Amino acid sequence: MKTKFAIICVANLLMAITCLAQAGTATVLEDFRPSVLNQPGQEYPKVNSQGYARFRIVAPAADSVKVSLGLGGRGGTRLAKAADGSLMGTTEGPLDEGFHYYHVTVDGGVFNDPGAQNYYGSVRWESGIEIPAHDQDFYALKNVPHGNVQQVLFPSQSTNAIRRAFVYTPPGYEKDRSKKYPVLYLQHGWGEDETAWSNQGRANLIMDNLIAGGKIKPFIIVMTYGMTNELKFGSGLRNFKVDTFQTVLVDELIPYVDANFRTLADQAHRAMAGLSMGGMETHSITLNRPGVFSYYGLLSGGTYTPAEINDKANVKLIFLSCGSKERPDGVRTAAAALKEAGYNAVSYISENTAHEFLTWRRSLHELAPLLFVN
Amino acid sequence: MKTKFAIICVANLLMAITCLAQAGTATVLEDFRPSVLNQPGQEYPKVNSQGYARFRIVAPAADSVKVSLGLGGRGGTRLAKAADGSLMGTTEGPLDEGFHYYHVTVDGGVFNDPGAQNYYGSVRWESGIEIPAHDQDFYALKNVPHGNVQQVLFPSQSTNAIRRAFVYTPPGYEKDRSKKYPVLYLQHGWGEDETAWSNQGRANLIMDNLIAGGKIKPFIIVMTYGMTNELKFGSGLRNFKVDTFQTVLVDELIPYVDANFRTLADQAHRAMAGLSMGGMETHSITLNRPGVFSYYGLLSGGTYTPAEINDKANVKLIFLSCGSKERPDGVRTAAAALKEAGYNAVSYISENTAHEFLTWRRSLHELAPLLFVN
């Protein structure tokens, strides 16, 4: 009986797969589950195995509720009255794998989805949703030794403020009290802040898993706020100048970290990388301040040309990456030119992702094993 | 000229004060400023020097927008169309000093205020607003040495999960690598989580300031999630059982902390305290597991009777507190009975506060100097 039942199940499964293949994207599988980023106990938003997202908002007297996620260029997903009086809607197509910011527009007002947790992006705390990625294992929370993420408040004379950084210390950091570690300074993108790399980026879990798998030697990661010529919130990147942040990072934060953590405090053991605007900052600061970093990483954050690098003897790695839906050719071409000029340049393209966090999680996962090895 | 101008100014000021005194609470001073808990760059919500709060929500097509804060029992503050098309409103009276959770109801749907930062309370991320307290200096962010707040992921076999705790390590923890510290286990209230004591409680800043002022000897604080018989979100405290959490705390987290931080790992150097439901947990666990803690603190979280304490020889302090708008007599009476029975019992009443975080910030500030001193 058991064997027969199993055979019928397999046959049904094969039929189901065939049906799905014939129907193409028009068939939305009804296997929706709560997004893993939902607030505790919240059923919605949900995602299905194809990457569709379904939203539910309770606002009985609202005339118009729209979710900012959906198909590109079509203005997101409009919710409609459901049988229970709530407003519901499903994206017109599957979303890219990974993390997406979104918000809800209720009768013209922008709010967050009460079902989802919030993540700082677009210069505000936005709702977040996660479409499970086929390779999500590398950033999953597992039963392995975990490092800590420490909130550090450090004094900044140049900005006359107490500033915040998060410092990832690897598992074992506390136990072996004589060991010293290299440091990666890792920057967020425009409109994000120092919480981004551990919250939406899962940098600590990526590191924990790499270390548990014996794929990297442990190092420290430092993440701080890079939009220090704040708060020109309307002006975007146009008026961004790196000088203020460069002083905070190089002249204030690095000495603070070296004084308060067990670091290998020299250029050979110091890396800088950043995503998007953080890549622009990495580009500028590594060029403006030769002698500080020896590993450079631009994640969806531009490229270097061989001619502009003025610290050639001390540059041990140049890592350039982006999503395949961004401009992969630019990244590949730039890395080739750098290699041609004698640099240890590596390019990485994240398949089927755009200017979003799965690109950067994967990029960190590729970058980490290349750091502090030569 | 300058002197004359100054005299006129003082005269005007005196007149203004006289007017205000005559008008009483009906005069709302127009000195509103953005709440210090606003999201970066956000002007609203605002608070004035009297403790009134003013809200502004942009939702052009909304018919009804209400803020949950206002005068008790009157259903909060209803916003009305302003000249610029936004919806605005001011509380009918001043709010208590300190931190308040709130939310916005837009056409029947519950959302957060896009202007405010979010804090986990009521089993959801809520908006937060801060009415500056006359004694806010003790929890202010100052240019003093700062301890770190470390996010720790620890394994819990009993709940088959990787659980999260936050650990405050005092300034200097990293530098003197042989020094060991006592530990306070500090619990949040119902509907809150392990982020509450550092986010809305400012426990780390209270400690930093006490240490900088030479008022306490440094100790470690550990904060973890106490609602482990989750997720009965509708059932409130009714069905709460402490057993699951007690196992996580005593048999899993304490050994993890003692193995991974430089603690004085004995009863004499271990305290437990909690607010509201966290006080109930403290009460139960200290009684169920004698031999683990020697300092007990209930912050708006009930009382002990002398008869129920079964570890008399090892109890070094019983601290009971609440706000003056709660049941201060119960706290005072219980402390007196404990003293009478020979315990080192201390009661503290926070003036003009209710079951809210200013009560608990002040309680921690009073409790800390009494810990680990005898």
From TrEMBL, chains A, B:
It holds the Pfam family Esterase. Residues 1-23 form the signal peptide. Keywords: Signal. It comes from the Bacteria. The keyword Signal applies. InterPro entries: AB_hydrolase_fold, Esterase-like, Mycobacterial_A85_antigen. This is Esterase. The lineage of its organism: Bacteria, Pseudomonadati, Bacteroidota, Chitinophagia, Chitinophagales.
